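S., here's the first fold you wanted:
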Amino acid sequence: MADMSCPRCGENLGESKLHEVEMRICAGCMGLLVEQRRLLPLLDAMAEELLVEVDLDTEVEMIEDRGPVGACPNCGSAMDCDGYMGSKEVFIDRCNSCWRIWIDPMELGAMSLMYARAEKKLEYTEKKLAEAREKIQLSGVASPGYSGYSGRMPPAIERQRFEQAKARLYRDLDITKGQARVIRVLTQVLSHL
C-alpha cells in the first residue's frame, strides 16, 4: 500500500486491522481511514457485544465535529461531511471518488452504539410488525356474505391496516423517515442473505 498522510495532523497512516477489517490508522490523532464497504462488517462485529446491553432508548452523546477533513488521504478528492445514519450526533467524512470514510477518534464507538441501537430497533420492529400482522389477520375476517369470502379480509384492506399499524409503531418508537428507510434497506438486505 502507498504511503498516506493523516488529513488532520499530517502523520503517516499505518496499516492496521480491527475485527479482521483492514484500515489505515493515524498514530498521532488516532483517526481511521476505512473503505466504505468494510464499515458495515466492522460495525456489525463491534455492535455484537453491545446488542446484549443496549436498549431502544440508549442515548448517544453528540461527538464534537472537528470540521471537514478536506482532501481524501487515498485519492486527494474532496470529502463530504455527513451525519452518520442521518443523525446530528456523529459526523463522518466520506469520499465519493474512492469510497473511503474518515472516522475521527470517539466516532467509531458512537457509531457502534448507534448501529447496535438500530439493530435492536429493527429486531423489536420486526417482532411488533409480525404481531400486528397476526392480529390483523385474526381480527379481520370478512363476513360470509362477502362475494370473495375466504375467511380473511380483502388484501387491500389488510395491507392498509398493516401500514397503519406500522406507522403507529414507528411513531411510538420515534423512528424518523430516514431511519425507517435504513430499516427497510437492512430488512431487504437481510432477506437476501
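And the second, which I think is the more interesting of the pair:
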Amino acid sequence: MTSPTSSSEQSPAPAELSAADIAALQQAVAAEHAAVFTYGLVLAHAQDHRRAQIQDHLAAHRDRRDHGTALLTGAGADVPAAAAGYTVDRVVDSPQAAADLAVLIEEQTAQSWYALLESARTAELRTLGAEALTDCAVRAARWRVAAGIVPATTAFPGRPDQDSAR
C-alpha cells in the first residue's frame, strides 16, 4: 500500500528557492498569465486552420503557468495574479497581425524563462527554464514562418537583443 505524496515531495521546500529564484519565477508566471490572455486575441483573428495550433499553444502556456504557480506555492512565496486585462501595443485586426502578435507573445515569454534560467540555483528550476525557453523558441519560429518573418529563428532565444523587432 502506498501513502499519499506530501506537497513537500511535489514542490521544493522554501529553503531550496533563493529570493532571486522566486522573483524570476514570479516574473515567468506573470508572463504566462499575459500569454494566456493575449492568445485569446490571436485566436479571435487567426486563420481557421491555425485554431488547433493556437489551442495547443494556450494549453502549453497554461501548463507552464500552473507548474510555476505550484512551485511558488510550495515555496511559500506569493503567486502573481493575472491582471483583469492587458494592453496590446498594436492593432490586431487580421490574420497577419495575429501571427505577428503570437511572435511577440512567444518572444516576451521566452525572455522571462531566459531570466529564470540565468538565476536558477536548483536543478528543477534550471530544467524548467530550459524546457520552457525551448518551447517558446519553437513556437516563435513557427509563428515567424506563418508571419513571413525571415529568419524564422534567432541565435539566442529569450535575449532581448534577439527579438524579431516586428
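Why I say that: Confidence is low (pLDDT under 50) at residues 1-15. Residues 149 and 164 are 8 Å apart (CA to CA).

Talk tomorrow,
H.
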